[in-house]
Structures are given as structure tokens and as C-alpha cells.
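All the exercises in this workshop are built on plain-text protein records. An example says more than a description, so a record of this kind follows:
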Amino acid sequence: TRIYAGQLAVMGGRHPMSPEIAHMAAQEEEHRAKFDALMAARGVRPTALQPFWSVAGFALGAGTALLGPEAAMACTAAVEEEIDRHYSAQLDELAEDGSDPELAGMIEEFREDERQHRDTALAAGAEKAPAYPLLSGAIRLGCRVAIRLAERV
């Protein structure tokens, strides 16, 4: 959500992708709200790093949008690829014991949205971003690190 907010803060409504970015942001907000409700119902605390992730996400979205719309889409594609991998790993774990079909269903639904976001970003020219392999690789690495840290803190 914050990445998309950063992108929209830079791109505004001027770019043809702005409505699609706003749509993806709304879907991400829905995901967050559902995860927050599930965590509250189960007494699970969110990561203590959430305030940092909020600022970092906005900065990542704004920073890549400042590089141009293709870089913003490269950011989206990279982040969503890592979220897809993370969700897939979680679904594999949940499938092993079958203990939480409610959570598995939510993750499956959200994973499909993330895949759609990635595909939308690729179709919008993500791979045309300057230094795409480097940009994408750096963002994906950052996402993997963020996921690992959030699991521990």
C-alpha cells in the first residue's frame, strides 16, 4: 500500500497507469485490513518494524517513480514477485499439516492478486526501466531481507 502511495505521490493522476496503481493500492489495503483483523482475532502482534516499513515502502515507491514510470513498474514487478514466492512458501507449509484452511484460503486469494499486479507491471513496461536487472535484483533482495526481519522482530 505504501509503495503505491509513494508512486502516486510522484506520478499523481497524470500518468495512464495511475488508475491501475490506485486499484492495486486498494487491493493491498484490503489485504492489510483482512490480515490485521485475523491477527487481532488470534492475538498475534504485528511486526515491531511496521512503522519503518511504512516509511521505507513510501520512499521506495516515490524513489522509483522519480526514475520514471517504467522504474515504478519495475518496483511493482519485483516486490510482487517476492511476495508471490513468500506466499507460495507459506501455502506449502500450510498444506503439509492442513491445520489452517482459513489462512490458506486468504493467502491463496491474495497471492493471485499479487501475481496479477506483477503481470500488470510487466505489461506496462517494467522491463524497459533503466538498468532493469540491477534495479529489480536490488528490490527483490531488499524484499527478502524485509520478510526475514519481519518474521523475527
About this structure: Residues 57 and 103 are 25 Å apart (CA to CA). Residues 2-152 form one domain. The two ends are 21 Å apart (CA to CA). The chain has a mean pLDDT of 95.
